[in-house]
Amino acid sequence: MLQNITEETTIEDIAGGEFEREPVPASNRKGWGSFLGMYAGEHAAGTEFMIGPLFLTAGVSAFDLIIGLLIGNLLAVLSWRFLTAEIAVKRRLTLYFQLEKICGKKLVTVYNLANGVLFCFLAGSMITVSATAVGVPLGMEMPQLTDTMPNGITYVIIVLIIGAVISLIAARGYDTVSRAANWMSPVIVLSFVACGIVALQLLDVYTFQDFWNIWGDGGEPFPGQIKYTFWHVVIWSWFANAAMHIGMSDLSVFRFARKASAGWMTAAGMYVGHYMAWIAAALLYAVYLRSPEAQAFLDAGTAPPVAPGPLAYNAIGFMGIIAVVLAGWTTANPTIYRAGLAFQAILPRLSTFWVTILAGTVATIAGLFPAFAMQLLGFVAFYGFVLAPFGAVIVFEHFFARRAGIQANYAERAGIGFNPAVFWAWAISFGLFYLISWQFDVFLSFVTLPAWLLCGLLFLVISRRTQQPV
């Protein structure tokens, strides 16, 4: 799975530290194998242990999950291939430098702050995931699906220790982070496979009909959760990485690709991690739901806990604990590192080490509050909804600037630090569709694409009216 590890490390290392303000030269471009390994490893990680079970809490049926994920992940791959990779190989710039050319430095600073904080919250949820595994042999009381605050001193101490260790490793730089992930990723993927196989045996599933009889048409969502239909699964899985593909964050990675066809390699992450691993994790939760403990929660009208540590331990023993710790670790480490880079753009006088420690501290504090992990489906939807429209600005300028009669890279050309066309396009699209989601109780992922399209269109219209010849 992890082919060309040395080349992969080079991509990530360069993406974090070289060619930040210039196109990537031909001598530094990489083949498709590098991206295959990177995406396969990055998307079979800690989030998968949470997302799979959370689908079951939303009452998803077998058909909706299997076919919905199949289609939704395909749409994500197509977005990477024909938008992100296509633009990346033509411009070969990082997301941040490209946004700076269009938006101006001041507006990019706002973007970096939002990006960094959201990264910290995601990393915090993965610290929570690892804590549920460490807490198994210590007899820790597991956080409940509806918990917001920490539920005990043992949980707090474990989170603080894990957060401190992860932050220190992330602060040592991406070379250390990437090397650790390369060693851990195969173990994690094999553990997902093992968990899925063991879970099927515990559920007495030997044919697809057996599987269907157990999962069937799904059921009512657990208390505090919304019912997921086929379209919820399709749209959510498409936009689970909205910030990365239609949000253009992965321009920073694909600028190193020799050809745009490298974008197809994202399928390794989508169908190893976001398909196989999500379903395997959901099966673990299905096993737990048959236990007397889970039935007692359901009889009391409360949702059984969705704690990855005990679920994996019940299936494959201490190997499961190790897998969950590593999975949370390999997600939190690079996420904290990337958050540190975003903060460094705002605090340039601080060293990479100290901004990463700052990011790790914020992530650790977030990890103390289990709501970020227990409500991960909603958080990921919000994350993509906030950041994806900035990518629309890049996409619409790239494909439609000439037809719309506007100047590309206007902030750079005009020497301005704040492009009002970008700000108002984002603010109007975000405000309008967030209001629709809140007022009419519309699933947030359903309005991500309309918000993205509106932001791109408004950017063209406002730019045409406000741009001055330069």
TrEMBL record:
InterPro entries: CodB
TM segment ranges: 65-89, 110-133, 153-171, 183-208, 228-247, 268-291, 311-332, 353-373, 379-396, 416-436, 442-462
Gene3D superfamilies on file: Hydantoin permease
Superkingdom in the source lineage: Bacteria
Keywords: Membrane, Transmembrane, Transmembrane helix
Signal peptide residues on this chain, from the entry's feature table: none
Keyword Iron: no
Descriptive protein name: Cytosine permease
